[in-house]
Protein: Inorganic triphosphatase YgiF, contains CYTH and CHAD domains
Amino acid sequence: MEQELKLRVRIEDLDTLRHVPLFAQSKGAAEVPRLLTSTYFDTPELAFHECGASLRVRAVGDGRLQTLKLEGSVQAGLFDRNEFEMPVDGDVPDLKLLHDPIPEASDCGKLVRDESAAAQLKPVFVTRINRAVFPLRLPSGDEIEVALDEGTVEADSGSLPIAALELELKQGQAENLYGVALELLDTVPLRIDRFSKADLGYALLIAEHCKAVKAQPVHLQKSDSVEDAFCSIVRNCLAQVHANERGVVSGHDPSSVHQMRVGLRRLRSALDLFATVIPAYAGLDEELRWIASELGAARDWEVLAGSTLEHAGTSGNPEELLPVRDACLKIATNNRQRAAQAVESVRYTRLALQLALWLSQKGWRGEMSDEQREALSRPARLFAADVLRRRHRKLIKRGKGLADIDDRRRHRARIAAKKVRYATEFFASLCPRRVVQHYVGALAELQDDLGWRNDAVVADELLKSLPRTSPETAAGAAFARGFLASRVAADHRTLKKLWKRFRRLSPPH
Structure:
């Protein structure tokens, strides 16, 4: 199993990194970088890439080293995956050497045993890396190998430069990789690297779309403590956040922006949910608000340019709305680029590393009293029942007269509904399934109605401001605002009905 934290560094900062005090204390550091030439192999149909694997042969002096890496998890730049490495005779892979370590029933196991695949293997790209290695032994006894890489990945279609810092855990706890990275971040501006060298090589061969990733169900055990539940829920939220970063960074995928934003909302809701027993560290909420706002600016204009104007176009002259849609799409595109820059920033890198370290080390325990630590061991199911009851009561209170209250109060009720929904989904596995489904079903319908109403309020403000910078949109913006106002007015009876249905329910327990 390989556990490796990957970070990008500017080429001009590599020399600074080579001379940081942390590396100067390293025993046996490479005096000069050595050249590593690795040739990656695949079939003409890229069968290894299709099953989430990469296969290479690396020249090590006069010897050759064959490595197969399987697809694993990537969170906050930490790659956690299976790696199979062995000497090989010659410059081409020998798939028979992989028969024993890889189960025959797996997709990759079948592939390495396929004689036709072995016969079709060919070089697809090459990496040439000058690597300086610094072995570190931390005071905790953990051992980390630090590699500073500078070079290129080359294919027939072109090449890409590489300048990277890799921290590979040799012995100890993976969270210490985050600690070392944060120490180095105080010296040079590092950024999370979400792409392995194999990923970069395949990107030169094929254009792949990063699919948006929705939240996965949280699975808690009946025996889980409050602290166990907190860790599971926060990791689940972070998995959604990190899984959508690639799509956001690409700058062209509004769905990834939306799903990363949802992941951040779920994360902030989870932190708020447990705040009385596990307080977040200072500054965390401020940083989460910052990155969420960077994503939100893109999302609001995407919604307006998409579903909102599409509905308006069915009720009037679509030609009048074309300038509005064009202007909104232009702003949305610019804001997507801004969101991509935020996720690629040093500020976001620091946030991701600090949060990962805090969660891994259970950093909240340090300043707690014995009584507070004891509270963490309470059964999660009791905590969940109390939280769901309180959140439900708060929503009932804020939603009183829901169809007739003003936009500000309805917005507060919508936020309360969202928090109830997230809390119920977080703790769903601790409650009877049918009860949860019935409750969440009614809540989801209510939330959807409140959601599009909120989109209408946001859209009205955006449409009001649009003609100031794009005068040609004035007529279309006025029509769209009128359409939205009439749609909201027509929804009065529906919202009243949905609220009446929900308020009869009791929270799951």
Observations:
- Residues 226-503 form a domain with the CHAD domain fold (CATH 1.40.20.10).
- The longest strand covers residues 122-137.
- The radius of gyration is 26 Å.
